[in-house]
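Project channel, design review

CF: Before we commit to the Penicillium camemberti constructs, I'd like one complete example in the thread so the newer folks can see what an input/output pair looks like. Taking MARVEL-like domain.
RD: sounds good, go ahead.
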Amino acid sequence: MTLPWIYPVRAVQALFGVIVIGLTGYVVSTYYNEWSYSDTVNFLLFLGCWTAFIAVPYLTISPIWFPRLAHHYAIPAVEVITMIFWFAGFIAMGAMLRPPRWCHGSACSSLQAATVFGAFEWVLFAVTSYFGIVDLVHHRRGGEAKPHSNVNIGV
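CF: and here is what came back for MARVEL-like domain:
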């Protein structure tokens, strides 16, 4: 029995989400009493939590153990929404950050790393969104898939 390719991708998506939680959580804790960090940092913190604790578990577990929760429209919807969130998050953070030559300190470096991991998350969710949409299109064309039979009846 071989492992489907989607499970390692989901594991990497969850891992990158946890990494973004750690990086942005560090920045929030560093500037806790100073209101000098942007809401973009909070958004990336939310995205890490959304990805690691809601989206990836739903996308991984529901098709296997809870097929009624894995509606044909819900899976691609969660994929695409998460992809759009990550795109907005890493673009907003990249636009907010200073250039690398003026970005000194651990908090700024953490935000740079969170931006890079956010870009990787966006790419991963773009790929899985594509396959989710392709599966949805095939499902809509064929309706409910019936098992193929190789038996020639009446021959």
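RD: helpful, thanks. Confidence is low (pLDDT under 50) at residues 147-155.
CF: The radius of gyration is 20 Å.
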